[in-house]
Design brief:
It is a single chain. The longest helix has 18 residues, at 48-65. It contains five helices and seven strands, in the order βαβαβαβββαβα. It is an alpha/beta fold and 166 residues long. A five-stranded parallel β-sheet has the order 2-1-3-4-7, with helices on both faces. A two-stranded antiparallel sheet has the order 5-6. It starts with a strand and ends with a helix. The protein is globular, with a radius of gyration of 17 Å.
């Protein structure tokens, strides 16, 4: 049975344990073993840097065991995906794992900016800080978009459905 590492900021939600159980159950329903980061056992009585390192090491080990990574790439605390999730996708991609993402909206990244947030400079769109706004017809930064096999508009389950049709 192939193993799926479940990446995303869902671990920060108030009901993160229940979310993880649901995602793992969906994996099982579609014939996969789900690996959810909060299933790792970490000693939280240690100093904070040691806890952080233990979480990091445990998640890395899970990614290394996985055959596939499915990542929630929705905006988190801003216009971009969760930075930890982005790192996990890059690491998995470097290991040669199959990496899939899902987003509620897969329109071009530049379209996530309101008209009032974009300005023209020398024929390019820039933000209020005069930084170019990426426009490569991807819903997310090109480094993530080009490192994942596919980004699905929809949900975690939609990715699983697509995998079972391959």
């Amino acid at each position: 049975m192939k193993k799926v590492y479940i990446a995303g900021p869902d671990v920060f939600e108030q009901d993160s344990i229940e979310i993880g159980k649901q995602l793992v159950a969906l994996c099982k329903e579609y014939g996969y073993e789900g690996l959810y980061p909060l299933d790792n056992v970490v000693d939280f009585s240690q100093e904070k840097h040691k806890i952080a390192k233990d979480i990091f090491d445990a998640n890395v080990a899970m990614i290394e065991k996985a055959d596939i990574v499915i990542a929630n790439l929705n905006q988190f605390r801003g216009k971009e995906a969760d930075s930890g999730t982005v790192w996990e996708c890059g690491y998995a991609s470097a290991l040669g794992k199959e990496v899939y993402g899902y987003m509620e909206n897969t329109n071009n990244y530049i379209d996530t900016f309101e008209h009032s947030e974009k300005f023209q400079r020398e024929g390019y769109e820039v933000d209020k800080y005069e930084r170019l706004i990426e426009d490569f017809d991807h819903p997310i930064n090109l480094m993530i978009a080009c490192s994942v096999k596919e980004i699905i508009e929809g949900s975690f389950e939609d990715v699983l459905k697509g995998l079972t049709q391959e």
